[in-house]
Amino acid sequence: MRIQNFNILWLLLTTSMVVGFFSCKRTNKENSKNDGSEKPNFLFILIDDLGSQDLGCYGNDFIETPNIDNLAEQGMRWSNAYSSCPVSSPSRVAILTGKNQSRVNFTGHISAIRQHRHPEKSRILPPNDLMQIPKEEVILPEALKPAGYKSISIGKWHVGGKGYWPTDMGFDENVAGWTHGSPPSHFYPYENPDQPWNSSIPALEGGEEGEYLTDRLTDEAIRFIEENKDQPFLVYLSHYAVHTPLQAPEALVEKYKAKKEKTGNEIINPVYAAMVESVDINVGRLIEKLDEWDLSENTVVIFASDNGALDKMGDKRVADNRPYRSGKGHLYEGGLRVPYIMKWPGHIEPGSVSETLTQSEDIYATIVDIAGVKAHANTPIDGRSLVSDFTDEDKVELHWYYPHYSPHGNKPGATIRSGKWKLIEFYDPKQVELYNLQKDPGENNDLSEEVPWKVQELSGKLHQWLHGMNPIMHTMNPEYEKDE
User: Fold this and answer.
1) What's the pLDDT at 1?
2) What sign does the dihedral 410-335-367-397 (CA atoms) show?
3) Please, what's the largest Cα pairwise distance for the chain?
4) Dihedral sign from CA coordinates of 220, 223, 224, 225
């Protein structure tokens, strides 16, 4: 009887040990999910036409952005972040390829009205360059795919027509991304029958009355993350906000109308302010979900804009870019300065600020560096990884080639920033301007005649860089008539 009891006891003990072993393995596997041994996830939130001065963490005391400000407090904010172009398509080319758009021959934005438009008697003709990213370019999701990343593009695409949309270029999924850059409407059913070329967003299905586009795109990002949280993912959430048409939920608009009256703010459009806060609310929703699903520690969150804010629509003010000059479409600081924030727990010191100059193409270089993958086998990228900025600062120069007559600036040219100095070489009319941004961030005092040696130095560097990019160049307009 004792032997039989012993056998029963031994059977129970060994069974318990086996169950415990597999239970322990399962628990350890679950606990190790975000222990840093796995590839980090990437949540890249790109806003359209948002200026650096639109956020509380960059000094705005009118528009309320607590969630984005908190993101900056949990990560790093760059105080000298620039778009690679003052309009959207080319800067997005730089973001997605890691190359300056001049090298990719895509320097102008896709327009439904007329490509490469220019005044009839303009001094130059913009280059007849590309209107899509060449398929031989290895864009961001393609670079990450060998490492097992699942990817989605949500929202604005604007870097190629049909046949060059996100899933044609390497993304696993596409929601609401297509040729054109501005949405017909920010409210469901997202249509504008008065613009046949832009009557609806074909890559966005479903919806319900009253649905707001910024909310809907965030819903899609949350859905994708939940479905793919057990594998490394790249979410490219490219909001159409805060691009025109200026539309926002009524309650937020009324809030800022009242606030405008109370504060006496005469510049910021209350609808625009409401659009920015809506973006902020949705950033908060995303961060909350990452926390809820225990993904925050192993997810790199990047928040940026494609170019500077639109300061005016006709004679009406939209955003307040002060102290910077002008806005979207201009080679002045207001058209080029953008917010840039990155959070990566355990790697970036919370609440840190980098003064290093950075540009759009650096985002690609940084992501592939963190993911531990090689960007290109044969062709170099122009972006530099910002990982060194987490602990140190580098001295760099930034360059721009924008030989186009944007509807906002209408002044084609090229630019270089080196340290405190910024030189702009305008093509029409032909002139050079030089600014000391350390003393004059508003670009009010042109020093080109006072410091000619600096003009010569920077002009030489700018032309040398442009020669190295080897873009399709602008040409002289044979119809140009010079005023006597």
Assistant:
1) 42
2) positive
3) 120
4) positive
What pLDDT is stored for residue 389 in this prediction? Answer: 84
- Which residues, including other chains, have CB under 8 Å from residue 82's CB and lie 6 or more apart? 336, 337, 338, 357, 358, 359, 360, 398, 417
- How many helices and strands in the chain, by DSSP H and E? 10, 18
Name every residue whose Cβ is closer than 8 Å to that of residue 422 and which is 6 or more positions away in sequence: 333, 415, 416, 434, 435, 437, 443
Q: Of 205, 143, 195, whose CA–CA distance to 169 is shortest? A: 143
Residue that has been written with the tokens 């993350």 in this structure:
225
Q: Per the structure block, which two tokens stand in for 106?
A: 């895509």
Task: Report how far Cα 223 is from the mean position of its chain's Cα atoms.
Answer: 21
Residue (of 141, 67, 38, 77) closest to 291 by Cα position: 67
Output the CA angle 417-393-300, nearest 5 degrees.
105
Task: Please tell me the predicted confidence (pLDDT) of residue 36.
Answer: 42
Q: What is the pLDDT of residue 112?
A: 67
**Residue 10 host element (H or E):** helix 2-31
57 near 68, Cβ under 8 Å?
Answer: yes
Contact 301, 342 (CB under 8 A): yes
Q: Report whether 365 contacts 110 (CB < 8 A).
A: no
Q: Three-state DSSP class for 291?
A: helix
User: Which tens digits make up the pLDDT trace of 330-349?
Assistant: 999 999 999 999 999 999 99
- In the predicted model, residues of the chain with pLDDT beneath 70 are 1-37, 112-115, 193, 195-199, 375-379, 393, 483-484
Beta bridge partners of 237: 45, 154
CA 351 to chain CA mean position, Å: 21
pTM over 0.85: yes
Q: What is the pLDDT of residue 25?
A: 34
Q: Which of 283, 288, 276, 311 minimizes the C-alpha distance to 406?
A: 311
Closest CA to 426 of 407, 405, 396: 405
pLDDT at 196: 62
